[in-house]
Design a protein that fits this description.
Chain lengths: 76, 771
């Protein structure tokens, strides 16, 4: 049951779209900053395989510039 | 309210991301986030310094039952004020790797066999005795670390120098901080920075010299960014040989040719004098001028010897010397335009601007490392920008206790906890405190680190005890030293927590207790001593490194010198150690206070910490309320005339590229700990070679192509990274050294600064071939 947090950077002028797309994805929780183009993304998945598939899907988003992992636990 | 473990971890994850965002964007606002109160009946939080870099961040480690389960920044620690970097947040996971050594091992018929630790300690003691009897006291050696806790290093020094009588004591800080030490000693007569981290909050200009702080000291870098965010005039200037994350965040970044920082620093001083920006009053009262030897060699040959000699000169001689370093001449050497050199000089020279210079390995791992340290001090001394809030030439350390254990305890061949072995007064003091005859302490230094491993290869040393470091990854020109360690007749003891290439060459492996599994102290970059208590049990038969040394010393007959009990020996050692520093110049805080506070800076005099040394307004050791560089007999700081000299090896037709090596944010040194933290391992799973885009095109390689990097000493095949987090200029490649699968130090050169004896890991010549 892995739990990870990331800083997600949207492409230029695509912050709102990235928020919408991430919010629509299962296992994702978003905290958007009010004054900068960066989001906190929390992922909470049932297993390693789901987690990997989710991260792969997130990386496919066209509104996403980059994703920086800041925290993770996998040994729950 | 009781929270579940899952809620707790989710909260930790959210908090760490938010704090990371604050690190990158001071003032960032998340409407939906508030720091979580992670108090829980089942979690006990205790303070400790971080285990990793030399910043000395204060952490709060959460313990549930007998297991450390979480980390958060310690808001009471002035170093980091509650922030952490990604390594700090995950640091407790390093305790719980599956392949942790929990028992001792002894090599029998070529195989490592699990052995009760008491028997392994018997064997270590008997082999030490045997070597001393057969080949003399100088045939045994101990090699430690800036990650040694202070009691580890102190006990090693007392045991080897005081009891056995050999100066074969060295530590890996020789590879990272020795030039900073000799830079301080030659300029000021005493070691360690005069300033403190409060300089970061007070400076108007930051100039970083070959120093990627965004990755190597991220919490301090975030404090710089926060200062710039709060004051619009603050500027960060990055002087570098390769574009990095720090370059991206800086206001300006100037790329210079390797080794040419010597010419740039001299040219800045030339401009300061030419434009009458010299602080004449400060210079006339507080500065002397000295000229040292030139053409001093590179130490690549065995038994290399060099001793510098300072010759007093005057300001006019200095001015004449600098005529060889006009900005235009320096431009030709460095590749940095004369206009930009003049810009740098104007920043340093502006009397209205407070300037802090930061450096780490770029200046220290340098065949003229002592010289470039001297030259940056020269700039601050000419302008009088030193030892006041925001004006600071500041050498940052790489390891958590490079200052505390190596520089202060003196775990180098020539040092004692106070003074050097060559001085009778220092030997007398040590003998008195240690309870040994003065004649036990040899007045002659023996081997510095590179020469110590050469002596192991040659057979002059046949027993070596290695604690808390991984030289079979980190030694330059590694193949020679690994082959030397494996030769017949060598006996290697390794105190470690996980298998490494160094434990692979061991005859005995002693399982070590790590960090919060034992009590200890670290000393960080700003003269701050930090205590940690034991928070969790040691695994299996793991034993504190200090206790391992005490156990072997007792087996060799030194019970009188090591009489302490297991439940109080760390306190007893601290109380003995601080007798060495009982003067206003270096007094350390008492044990009880260190247990209470998140670090205390020395000199600690009359209940007060000293923020800025050598300035009577802050430093009680000064004669009056102005500057007093009391480390030198004339109470002045010394400006040194140090020329530009080329590196030991430069690119040529056969080997046309510079090789530069270093670290990445996610991994600590050789990765023996951080590569066992799954999150950090996944973030940067293997090493790579950064190549400039134009060079990549010429070679016909793309990202993840394989290339062979070869020097005159060895080669390694690894994946290419183009336009990654770092970007070297055309003609240079950069390789992180954290990955033992790619031993880049088989390629590097064991040339060193003849004064500090610190090797240069930043410059040698290589060729690249597409695989």
């Amino acid at each position: 049951m892995p739990i990870f947090s990331f800083l997600a950077y949207p492409k230029k002028s695509m912050k709102d779209q990235l928020i919408r797309e991430l919010s629509a994805m299962k296992y994702c929780e978003i905290k958007a900053s009010e004054n900068q183009d960066v989001l906190i993304l929390l992922t909470d998945t049932p297993d390693e395989k789901t987690n990997k598939n989710l991260i792969d899907s997130i990386k496919e988003l066209k509104s996403l510039q980059s994703l920086s992992m800041t925290f993770g636990h996998t040994d729950l | 309210m009781t929270i579940t473990r899952r809620d707790f971890i989710r909260s930790m994850a959210l908090d760490s991301a938010a704090v990371a965002a604050f690190t990158m964007f001071p003032g960032i606002s998340f409407a939906g986030w508030k720091p979580t109160d992670l108090s829980s009946d089942s979690i006990q939080w205790s303070k400790t310094p971080c285990r990793f870099c030399g910043t000395g961040c204060g952490l709060l480690v959460g313990v549930s039952g007998k297991r450390a389960v979480a980390v958060k920044g310690d808001p009471n620690c002035s170093v980091n004020k509650g922030l952490c970097c990604v390594k700090g947040y995950h640091s407790v996971q390093v305790l719980y790797g599956r392949d942790r050594f929990k028992t001792a091992y002894v090599r029998k018929n070529g195989k490592m066999v699990p052995t009760p630790i008491e028997k392994a300690l018997d064997l270590v003691a008997s082999r030490m005795k045997e070597s001393i009897e057969k080949t003399g006291k100088d045939s045994i050696a101990i090699y430690g670390s800036g990650q040694w806790s202070i009691p580890d290093g102190y006990t090693a020094s007392k045991f080897f120098k005081g009891c056995i009588g050999t100066n074969n004591v060295e530590a890996n800080a020789r590879l990272c901080m020795a030039s900073a030490v000799t830079g301080c000693l030659t300029t000021f007569g005493l070691d360690e920075p005069m300033g403190c981290y409060e300089d970061i909050d007070n400076a108007d200009v930051f100039i970083t010299w070959g120093n990627n702080m965004a990755e190597m000291h991220p919490v301090l870098f975030s404090r710089m960014l926060a200062n710039r965010k709060s004051k619009t005039h603050v500027r960060i200037i990055d002087l570098t040989t390769r574009s990095t994350r720090s370059s991206q965040a800086a206001d300006k970044s100037f790329i210079f040719n390797p080794q040419s920082d010597l010419a740039i620093a001299n040219a800045i001083c030339y401009e300061i004098i030419k434009n009458n920006w010299v602080n004449q009053d400060f210079v006339s009262k507080h500065v002397s001028f000295y000229k040292g030897k030139t053409h001093i060699g590179y130490g690549t040959e065995d038994h290399f010897k060099f001793k510098d000699k300072g010759e007093a000169v005057d300001f006019n001689a200095y001015k004449e010397f600098l005529k060889d370093y006009t900005p235009e001449i320096a431009e030709k050497i460095s590749g940095v335009s004369a206009e930009n050199i003049k810009y740098l000089a104007a920043l340093y020279g502006d009397p209205e601007k407070k300037v802090t210079s930061f450096w780490t390995m770029g200046m220290n791992q340098h065949t003229r490392g002592t010289w470039i340290n001297n030259l940056v001090y020269n700039i601050h001394l000419l302008t009088g920008k030193i030892s006041t809030p925001g004006n600071s030439p500041f050498s940052l350390t790489g390891q958590p206790s490079a200052c505390g254990t190596v520089r202060e305890v003196g775990t180098l061949t020539h040092k004692l906890p106070h003074g050097v072995v060559m001085k009778e007064k220092a030997r007398k003091l040590a003998a008195k405190i240690w309870g040994v005859p003065e004649s036990n302490i040899d007045p002659k230094p023996t081997y510095h680190t590179v020469e110590m491993f050469r002596a192991l290869d040659r057979g002059e040393i046949n027993f070596m005890w290695i604690q808390v470091t991984n030289p079979m990854v980190t030694m330059p020109n590694l193949r020679r030293y690994r082959n030397g360690a494996k030769k017949d007749g060598r006996f290697i003891v390794v105190s470690e927590i996980y298998p490494t290439p160094t434990s692979d060459v061991a005859d005995v492996i002693l399982p070590s207790a790590l960090w919060v599994e034992r009590e200890g102290f670290f000393g960080n970059s700003e003269r701050r001593t930090q205590h940690n208590e034991q928070l969790v049990p040691k695994p299996g038969e793991a034993m504190c490194n200090t206790w391992q040394l005490i156990q072997v010393a007792r087996r060799m007959g030194f019970e009188k010198q090591f009489p302490w009990k297991e439940d109080s020996y760390i306190e007893d050692i601290w109380n003995e150690y601080i007798k060495f520093h009982d003067t206003p110049k270096h007094r350390m805080a008492p044990y009880k206070l260190l247990r209470e506070r998140s670090g205390v800076q020395w000199p600690f005099v009359n209940g007060k910490e000293t923020r800025w040394r050598y300035n009577g307004k802050y430093d009680p050791a000064c004669r009056d309320d102005t500057w007093d560089f009391y480390g030198k007999p004339d109470h002045k700081a010394w400006i040194w005339l140090r020329p530009y000299e080329p590196p030991a090896e430069s690119p040529d037709r056969e080997y046309p590229f510079w090789l530069n090596t270093g670290r990445v944010l996610e991994h600590w040194h050789t990765g023996s700990m951080t590569r066992r933290i799954p999150i950090l391992h996944r973030a940067v799973p293997e090493s790579y070679v950064e190549i400039n885009q134009e060079d990549a095109k010429t070679l016909g390689v793309v990202n993840k192509s394989l290339v062979k990097i070869s020097s005159r000493r060895g080669s390694v095949v690894m994946k290419v990274s183009i336009n990654g987090r770092g970007n070297p200029p055309k003609g240079m490649v950069f390789v992180p050294f954290f990955d033992e699968s790619y031993l880049i130090n088989e390629v590097t050169l064991d040339a060193f600064c003849p004064i500090s004896k610190q090797p240069d890991y930043k410059k040698c010549a290589v060729k690249l071939e597409k695989v």
